[in-house]
Write a structure and sequence with these properties.
Family: Belongs to the TRAFAC class TrmE-Era-EngA-EngB-Septin-like GTPase superfamily. EngB GTPase family.
Helix content: 25-40%
Protein name: Probable GTP-binding protein EngB
CATH class: Alpha Beta
Low-confidence stretches: none
Radius of gyration: 16 Å
Shape: globular
CATH superfamily: P-loop containing nucleotide triphosphate hydrolases
Structural class: alpha/beta
Keywords: Cell cycle, Cell division, GTP-binding, Magnesium, Metal-binding, Nucleotide-binding, Septation
GO molecular function: GTP binding; metal ion binding
CATH architecture: 3-Layer(aba) Sandwich
Function: Necessary for normal cell division and for the maintenance of normal septation.
Order of helices and strands: EEHEEHEHEHEH
Bound molecules: guanosine-5'-diphosphate, magnesium ion
Largest sheet: 7 strands, mixed
């Protein structure tokens, strides 16, 4: 299925300003520069809806997009920026946790990682938190084009040991080549009760 109409709804910097829950939602979360914007664009079949940055920027807002009046895509602000002041880090935590713990029709949370990197303390902390929420989520290991087949297998095995997810909920993708994108897309659509 392709989408016809994608509308920007709202940008939120404080949990108090979240829109009133309504349409089903899918949310994307990842460290800065993992390819979150690229994955959102690939999912929606758009070139530059969510901004793709060549230099990791500082996006502190949570952005809502309405797709064909049927569901919302929530672009959660990235984490793990170098040299972020504690105050900004606290604001990020408050906003993201405020969203994720709110009573909202969140059908699927998509956690994006860079397959080339190992999970660090920040990733593990986030995974523990997400696990504790008991909300449906999947992991997308992106940038596979940067690795050889052997390296992919090795990195995948490492991530498997870190993630508390069944194998079928872990996706390997490249937003550059498009490899693995259809599988993620159908997983998200099925979470929304839509057909691929
Ligand atoms: N090689 C490669 N580069 C990617 C991939 N996905 C994203 N990128 C690049 O990584 C950088 C950050 O991407 P972006 O989507 O802005 O990441 P975000 O900060 O997580 O939103 C950009 O230069 C993208 O072109 C991928 O699968 N493979
Ligand atoms: Mg981005």
């Amino acid at each position: 299925m392709s989408f016809r109409e994608i509308q920007f709804v709202k940008s939120v910097v404080k949990p108090e300003d979240l829109p009133v829950p309504g349409l089903p939602e899918v949310a994307f979360l990842g460290r800065s520069n993992v390819g979150k914007s690229s994955l959102i664009n690939a999912f929606l079949g758009r070139k530059k809806l969510a901004r793709v940055s060549s230099t990791p920027g500082f996006t502190r807002a949570l952005n809502f997009f309405r797709v064909d009046h049927r569901f919302l895509v929530v672009d959660l602000p990235g984490y793990g920026f170098a040299r972020v002041p504690p105050k900004v880090q606290r604001a990020w935590k408050r906003l993201v946790e405020g969203y994720l713990s709110a009573a909202r029709p969140l059908r699927l949370l998509i956690l994006i990682f860079d397959l080339r990197r190992r999970a660090d303390e920040l990733d593990r902390g986030l995974l523990e938190y997400v696990e504790s929420l008991g909300r449906p989520y999947i992991a997308v290991l992106n940038k596979i084009d940067k690795l050889s087949r052997n390296e992919r297998l090795k990195a995948r095995a490492e991530w498997l040991s870190v993630l508390s997810l069944p194998e079928e909920e872990i996706f390997l993708t490249s937003c550059r080549t498009g490899e693995g994108i259809p599988a993620v897309r159908s997983r998200i659509l099925s979470a929304l009760g839509l057909r691929a």
